[in-house]
Design the sequence.
């Protein structure tokens, strides 16, 4: 399989997160669905990786398991050096708020909190202050300084996603997972959010893992990994929208 | 099946849990109501049977025709009849047997030295009637009294006092009499007549100790010979009876007894319970309304879709109402069954705790079946009506909109209406309390105040939660801030949830304030009008106890430490045709131990034809010193008295005072209710008290209390009442808490995605639980504070209105400690109500919550 050689070529750089022989089965027995069927993949530090694949390929499951939101049936997942399967719910929660950032497709913000409070929510939950200069800089990067005391309901969809990006990076996490972050946005707002993610990786050496089905979004990444039927089928460095689209089309042609 | 109905059925099936709170609220309220009604009927029927059994052998009762009834007493005082009338009656054809019935007060002392009973039900003593058919009590063990000093007592009293056949103890009549128990009796098959204690003695003893003059009895019981009906017997007796004496049938007499128990005890008891089931149901109304309002709000999209697909308004409204009806009917039926169960349980429980309620089958009348059902269903449907109409009004377009956040609570119109109502309420109340005292106005004002509070709730909730939750942000960081903002989310919902608790807490604080005020009033009365050093009284309350020996005051007076000892006895007479309580005492000594205020005339020479009256009563009857007034006594004699003194204060001394000499010809069983003692100069309270205690030992060892102790014990009954009230209100508070828990559960269901997000970005389970709990505490705090304010105000209204409407001056008191306890209980209860919703919220699956669309 081509994927195996691609993986071994990448092991020289340190990894921010990853899974080894990840298997996830939903249900049991004959009705069981293998959402992940022996996936091994590393997300290197300082890289922007996109996970692509058709619906039902297991890309969201992969992200959930790698981020500690879901547990694997077998195999291992790790954030940095920490093996996730050994952690209980409390430790997983603490790990998420200290070392992982999240951007979801929608409903990213707590409606009762202001923009500023949403950004510092993980830090506040941890009871810490974080790094005020870093957060201040983040607010400028996402361009929301004049909206800090607004409620999420007073923001546009694009603005809301930018707040979510700021929150994801506020605690300087090891890795930020983004699940279809532009799925509900028009192309201009989507472009802004993707630009933010890319800049965060390149300028501040953060790690981003993004699940998407949009080739244009995937083109913002440093590398794209392709999933199909719960298996890792390909990796592509320096993607462009056209190359990604071509590769995706290949899945749809029955082999 | 009709479309609305099938929609409701499927909705009910899908959301069983959501309506569990509503079900419980209706269930509890209806069960309480049904239980009260069934228990009331059962007790009444039980007493009927018991009296019927006990007096089955008595075919006629001969007694004085006239009774003098004083205000606040249900049983009149009758003049005794001569016992030798028995021999006349015995000769009347158709009479099989006749026996005098001598009755008085006699309190037994138990094995441990404490008097038995006396807290409410009467403590009776009488002659043991040897004809078993005529005696209401039946000898169960031992033998009947034959020699002086031998008595039969009812088995219930024997058990309570730890007494057995052969024991010797003291009977206070009120003079202590040494008695030996020779037999135990039952009453109508029961161990006793409820909590009433009975001591049966020989006729000679009874005449000696229980009547003012030997040869008199309360009445004469007569048994008819074979073939003579009760009415025939009465007809035969009537011609031979002297003037002023009547004969009534045994059945009439039994009915009178039952009515007396009914009006004295059962009706009060049942009414009391009904009021509290009313409060519980009112609280339930708020909880139920809130549940349906939330359910309808959550279903906006679903209803809008139905409307878009062509369902009519009526169909959507009907489907919600059908759902409410289903809950109402099942909960009410279950509540009815539960109530009958409660009544059956209590019937079994009471004898177990030594309260011999009459046995018998449960009496379930049509009314006690119908009323709880109608009320339960009415409350539930009434509460659901508004939300159902709102459901029908859902615009089809609402299906396309994002679920709206409800901020309609704090509208300007509501604020203005609420404030207007509040101003009106305060205005009406204040004018009803202060300007022209009127209970009616004050009551209207109180109801208006309640309505104003409920209307203002949503407006006030925003500010109140912000203030109450202020410290939370600092104490609990982001968890506290989230809790506070969640509570602020829907002011209307928060207010409605809190309103239920508010009403419960308001009633609790109302009683707390009123109770404290009553105590303060007692205290004020004693400190204002009691000028003595110690008071001797028997610890009794209600109709029980036997009073104090009239010789006690004289004995105490002879002590070297004592300056004045005055005994206050009680008499009754009709003054100007109305029954009045008289204080029988030594007026001169009275003046020295009680502060009577300003006195016109003199108490010195009342003699046998003088009377002293309070200014207030004198004013009412247009009397002044030197005027004459006519007093009719229980023996039927009328005498003219001259008003020799008019005094200012009455609280402890009573409104009418006559001398012992004036009372002596008309007296019944002699007893003082209070002996007030003042010491000579230089005698310390402790020394004096010890001396009085020693002297009192020979007179049945009544309690000797200092002024403070006396004031406190006068208020003892209030604490008992408050305890009962608190126990009954616990149910209303429980229903309110179910409401809070239910609202929270529904809110959590609504916020599933948000909770999932919080968990994803690092909120731990314990933080999530704390957040939900604090929200619950905040809502409870709002309800509690509102309830305290409202209850305090209503308490003030009640005290002031009572002050204006009654003769005696009422003091108003706010008990800070008790109210703080009420507040603490409210908050703790809020935390408890949040426990289950918090646990459920914490069990939430993060992934599913995030994925939920």
Sequence:
């Amino acid at each position: 399989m081509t994927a195996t050689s691609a993986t071994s070529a990448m092991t020289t750089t340190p990894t921010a997160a990853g899974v080894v022989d990840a298997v996830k089965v939903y249900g049991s027995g004959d009705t069981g669905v293998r959402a992940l069927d022996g996936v091994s993949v590393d997300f290197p530090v300082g890289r922007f990786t996109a996970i692509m694949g058709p619906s039902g390929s297991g890309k969201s499951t992969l992200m959930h398991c790698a981020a500690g939101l879901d547990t694997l049936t077998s195999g291992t997942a790790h954030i940095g050096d920490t093996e996730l399967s050994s952690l209980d719910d409390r430790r997983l929660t603490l790990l998420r708020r200290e070392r992982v950032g999240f951007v979801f497709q929608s409903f990213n913000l707590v409606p009762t909190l202001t923009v500023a409070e949403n950004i510092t929510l993980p830090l506040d939950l941890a009871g810490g202050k974080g790094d005020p200069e870093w957060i201040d800089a983040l607010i400028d990067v996402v361009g929301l300084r004049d909206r800090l005391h607004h409620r999420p309901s007073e923001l546009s969809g694009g603005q809301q996603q930018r707040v979510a990006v700021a929150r994801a990076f506020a605690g300087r996490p090891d890795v930020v997972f983004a699940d279809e972050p532009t799925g509900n946005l028009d192309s201009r707002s989507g472009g802004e959010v993707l630009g933010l993610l890319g800049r965060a990786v390149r300028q501040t050496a953060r790690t981003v893992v993004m699940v998407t089905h949009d080739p244009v979004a995937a083109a913002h990444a440093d590398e794209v990994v392709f999933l199909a039927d719960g298996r890792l089928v390909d990796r592509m460095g320096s993607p462009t929208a056209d190359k990604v689209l071509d590769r995706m089309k290949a899945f749809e042609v029955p082999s | 099946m009709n479309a609305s109905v099938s929609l409701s059925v499927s909705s009910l099936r899908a959301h069983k849990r959501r309506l569990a709170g509503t079900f419980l609220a209706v269930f509890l309220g209806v069960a309480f109501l049904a239980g009260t009604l069934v228990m009331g009927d059962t007790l009444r029927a039980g007493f009927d049977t018991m009296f019927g059994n006990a007096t089955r052998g008595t075919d006629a009762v001969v007694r004085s025709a006239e009774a003098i009834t004083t205000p606040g007493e249900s049983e009149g005082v009758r003049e005794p009849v001569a016992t030798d009338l028995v021999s006349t009656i015995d000769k009347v054809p158709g009479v099989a047997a006749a026996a005098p019935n001598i009755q008085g007060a006699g309190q037994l002392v138990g094995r441990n030295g404490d008097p038995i009973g006396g807290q409410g039900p009467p403590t009776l003593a009488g002659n043991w009637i040897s004809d078993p058919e005529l005696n209401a009590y039946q000898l169960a063990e031992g033998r009947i009294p034959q020699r002086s000093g031998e008595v039969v007592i009812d088995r219930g009293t024997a058990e309570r006092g730890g007494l057995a056949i052969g024991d010797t103890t003291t009977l206070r009549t009120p003079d202590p009499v040494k008695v030996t128990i020779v037999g135990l009796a039952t009453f109508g098959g029961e161990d006793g007549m409820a909590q009433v204690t009975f001591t049966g003695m020989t006729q000679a003893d009874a005449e000696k100790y229980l009547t003012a003059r030997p040869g008199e009895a309360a009445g004469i019981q007569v048994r008819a010979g074979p073939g003579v009906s009760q009415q025939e017997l009465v007809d035969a007796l009537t011609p031979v009876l002297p003037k002023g004496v009547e004969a009534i049938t045994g059945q009439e007499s039994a009915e009178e007894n039952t009515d007396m128990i009914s009006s004295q005890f059962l009706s009060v008891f049942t009414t009391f319970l009904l009021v509290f089931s009313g409060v519980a149901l009112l609280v339930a109304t708020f909880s139920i309304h809130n549940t349906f309002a939330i359910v309808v709000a959550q279903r906006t999209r679903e209803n809008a879709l139905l409307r878009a697909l062509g369902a009519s308004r009526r169909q959507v409204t009907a489907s919600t109402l059908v759902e409410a009806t289903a809950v109402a009917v099942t909960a009410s039926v279950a509540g009815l069954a539960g109530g009958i169960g409660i009544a059956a349980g209590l019937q079994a429980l009471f004898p177990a705790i030594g309260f011999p309620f009459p046995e018998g089958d449960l009496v379930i009348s049509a009314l006690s079946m119908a009323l709880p059902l109608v009320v339960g269903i009415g409350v539930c449907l009434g509460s659901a009506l508004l939300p159902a109409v709102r459901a029908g009004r859902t615009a089809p377009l609402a299906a396309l909109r994002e679920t709206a956040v409800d901020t309609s609570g704090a509208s300007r119109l509501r604020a203005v209406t609420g404030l207007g109502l509040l101003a009106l309420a305060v205005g009406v109340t204040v004018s009803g309390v202060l300007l022209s005292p009127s209970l009616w106005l004050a009551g209207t004002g109180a109801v208006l105040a309640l309505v104003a509070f409920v209307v203002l709730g949503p407006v006030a909730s925003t500010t109140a939660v912000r203030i109450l939750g202020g410290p939370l942000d600092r104490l609990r960081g982001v968890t506290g801030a989230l809790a506070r903002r969640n509570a602020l989310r829907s002011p209307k919902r928060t207010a409605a949830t809190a309103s239920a608790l508010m009403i419960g807490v308001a009633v609790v604080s109302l009683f707390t304030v009123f109770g404290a005020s009553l105590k303060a009033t007692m205290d004020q009365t004693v400190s204002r009008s009691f000028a003595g050093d110690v008071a001797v009284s028997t610890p009794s309350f209600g109709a029980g106890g036997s009073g104090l020996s009239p010789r006690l005051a004289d004995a105490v007076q002879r002590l070297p430490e004592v300056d004045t000892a005055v005994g206050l006895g009680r008499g009754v007479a009709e003054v100007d045709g109305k029954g009045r309580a008289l204080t029988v005492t030594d007026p001169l000594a009275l003046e020295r131990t009680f502060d009577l205020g300003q006195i016109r005339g003199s108490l010195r020479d009342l003699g046998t034809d003088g009377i002293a009256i309070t200014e207030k009563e004198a004013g009412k009857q247009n009397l002044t010193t030197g005027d004459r007034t006519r007093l009719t006594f229980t023996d039927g004699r009328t005498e003219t008295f001259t008003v020799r003194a008019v005094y200012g204060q009455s609280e402890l001394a009573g409104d009418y005072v006559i001398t012992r000499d004036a009372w002596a010809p008309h007296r019944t069983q002699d007893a003082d209710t209070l002996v007030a003692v003042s010491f000579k100069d230089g005698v310390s309270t402790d020394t004096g008290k010890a001396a009085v205690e020693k002297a009192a030992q020979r007179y049945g060892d009544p309690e000797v209390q200092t002024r403070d102790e006396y004031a406190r014990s006068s208020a003892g009954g209030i604490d008992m009442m408050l305890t009962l009230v608190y126990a009954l209100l616990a149910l209303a508070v429980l229903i309110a808490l179910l409401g809070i828990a239910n609202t929270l559960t529904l809110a959590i269901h609504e916020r599933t995605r948000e909770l999932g997000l919080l968990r994803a970005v690092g909120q731990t389970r314990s933080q999530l639980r704390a957040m939900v709990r604090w929200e619950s505490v905040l809502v409870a705090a709002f309800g509690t504070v509102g309830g305290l304010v409202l209850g305090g105000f209503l308490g003030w209204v009640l005290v002031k209105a009572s002050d204006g409407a009654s003769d005696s001056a009422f003091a108003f008191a706010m008990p800070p400690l008790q109210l703080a306890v009420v507040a603490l209980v409210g908050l703790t209860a809020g935390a408890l109500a949040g426990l289950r919703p918090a646990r459920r919220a914490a069990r939430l699956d993060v992934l599913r919550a995030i994925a939920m669309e």
